[in-house]
Amino acid sequence: MSLTFLWYIPNTVEPGHRGDDTTSGWGSLEYSTELALAAERHGWGGALLGTGWGRPDTFALATALAARTTTFRPLIAIRPGYWQPAHFAGAAATLDQLSRGRVLVNIVSGLDNLAAYGDTTLDPAKRYDRTREFLHLVRRLWTEEDVTFHGEHFRVTGSTVAPRPYPTGERAHPTLYFGGASEAAERVSAAEADVQLFWGEPLDGLAERIDRLRTLSGRLDRRHKPLEFGLRITTVVRDTTEEAWHAAEAKVAQMAGRDVERSWTGNRRTAVGQQRLLDLAARGDVLDTCLYTAPGRFGGGGAGTTWLVGSPDDVAAALDAYRRLGITHFVLSDTPYRQEIARIGDRLLPKPALAGTRIG
Predict the structure, then answer these.
(1) How far apart are CA 11 and CA 34, in angstroms?
(2) pTM over 0.90, yes/no
(3) pLDDT tens for residues 242-265?
(4) Measured between alpha carbons, how far is 59 from 211 in angstroms, rounded to an integer?
(5) I want to staple 233 with a disulfide (CB 3.0 to 4.6 A). Which of 83, 200, 254, 278 is the partner?
(6) C-alpha distances in angstroms, 208 versus 108, 179, 201, 214, 215?
(7) Separation in Å, CA 190 to CA 201, 210, 326, 343
(8) What torsion, rounded to 10 degrees, do the Cα atoms 349, 352, 354, 356 define?
């Protein structure tokens, strides 16, 4: 089974992201390049690049990092409403050609500072309808010529993208990742995404969601290859189980002592996925074997809210349990980013439980 292991580069100008103690370099090309090159050296296929209004532009950063690396694959987080589909399809295909097939794309529909860049679509249902159109049209523009499409949200007439994305094996275009836990979001994934990206939940909940998405794909008469599944989660790894839990509990104690609510710019109170993570804490601080939910009571929200904590063997076994559910894409991280990219890459990724054909 082919497995993808990606890291996370926060892409922010503000220090202290998720407790990282690095004080200088944030937002600089040098610092982000250092993290990307470290990913190459320590076994990662690439990294998800954080996005949000007020951060450096994600696509511009991805282009710079692709030019300064050899195998690093940027998972570029982008938003319909910020990009028009034809504009994005052309830019991404060009970068994919220049990087020889290293582009990955993460479509984000959640709320941001929409007014700052002129996005007026606030209704969640309409945002997901727009995302579905965006994915459908981008895929067509990457694979067809003379595309005409007149939808509710986007229109193109006689559009041909040049150059095409760089073909590698069976891959005709960059992989399209998408996340979301609401019914509307799941319909987008089941119909148009390549990878449904989950946040860290217990095995029973994700097994139910995977089964539902596979069933929904059939009902929607999905036209693409079968939907794949990914996990975005924090991993706190130390040499022993005891050391890892001591480190995790110390991190949570620090979080409890400072105001981190301001770091979450999404729709914390209304997003279905975010609420699912917050609800986990009511079930217990530790679920399954080593899924730590306590950070959700103090963190700023989002994808890193729940943590897998333990020795390399502990965390490898937990990730293998997700793999056995059908999850083959993993986006992992911990802070300090510069230190943990090496520790986790060197001590966790080589574990036999995670053996498989590695792809970026």
Answers:
(1) 12
(2) yes
(3) 999 999 999 999 888 775 544 444
(4) 33
(5) 200
(6) 23, 16, 11, 10, 11
(7) 19, 10, 15, 35
(8) 110
